[in-house]
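---------- Forwarded message ----------

FYI, see the Cell division coordinator CpoB record below. Original note from H. follows.
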Amino acid sequence: MKKVILVAAMLFTTATAFAAPAPVSDASNGSNDDRIAKLERIIKAKQQGDFDMQRRMDALQNEVLDLRGITEQQNYQMNQMIQRQRQLYEEIANLTAKSSTPTATIPADATTVAAASSTLGETGSYEAAVNLVLKERKYDEAIPAFRNFIATYPDSNYAANANYWLGQLLYNKNEYSDAKQAFSTVVTKFADSNKRSDSLVKLGMIAEKENDSAGARALYNKVLKEYADSASARLAQQQLSALKG
C-alpha cells in the first residue's frame, strides 16, 4: 500500500513538472524581452526624430532672425536715404539770392561761364554749375551756368537735373514763369528722369502760388498715382493735405 502511494506521488510530481507554464511569449512579436527591446528602439527613434525636428526649428528660427536683422538694416538705410533727400529738399527750398551779388553783373557772369564751359566739357560744365550752388553758394551765378549748360548740351544725361536745378533757383527768386518752364521741360522731355516726380511737385507748388488750387491738386494727385511710396509722393501728400479750397 505504501509502495502504491509512493508511486502515485511520484507520478503526480512528474505531471506537475510537465504542466508548469512556459515563459510568456507573443506568437507574433516574440518574448517580453523582444517586445521591450522593440519599444526601446521605437522610443529612441522618436527621441532622435524629436531632436532632429528641434534642430531644424532652431535653424529656421536663426534664419528668421537673420532675415529680420537684414530687413531692419535695409529699413534703416532707406530711412537714412529718405532723411537725406528731405534735407536736400529743405536746403534747396531755402536757397536765397546773395544780396552782395548785384543783378546787373549776371550778363558778365553768363559770358564768363559760357567761356569756361567751352573748355570744361559736358561733365565739367555740369559739375561747375552744381558746385556754384552746393559749395560756393553763388546762386545768381549758378542760374546762367545752368542755362548755358542746357543750351550747349540739351540732350545730355545731366540735362534733366540741370533743368531741375535751374527751376529751383528761379523758384527761390519768385520767378515762377521761368521756373515753370524749366520744371515742365523735365516732366515732358525727360519722362524717365528721377527728377520728374520732384518737378511735378514743384509745378504744383507754383500752381498754388498762382492761386490755381485745382491745378495744384491735379499735379499732386498725379504724383501720388504715378510715384506711390516715393519721397515725392509723401511731399505731394503733405502739400495736398494743406491745400485749401
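H. also flagged this: The first strand starts at residue 25 and ends at 26.
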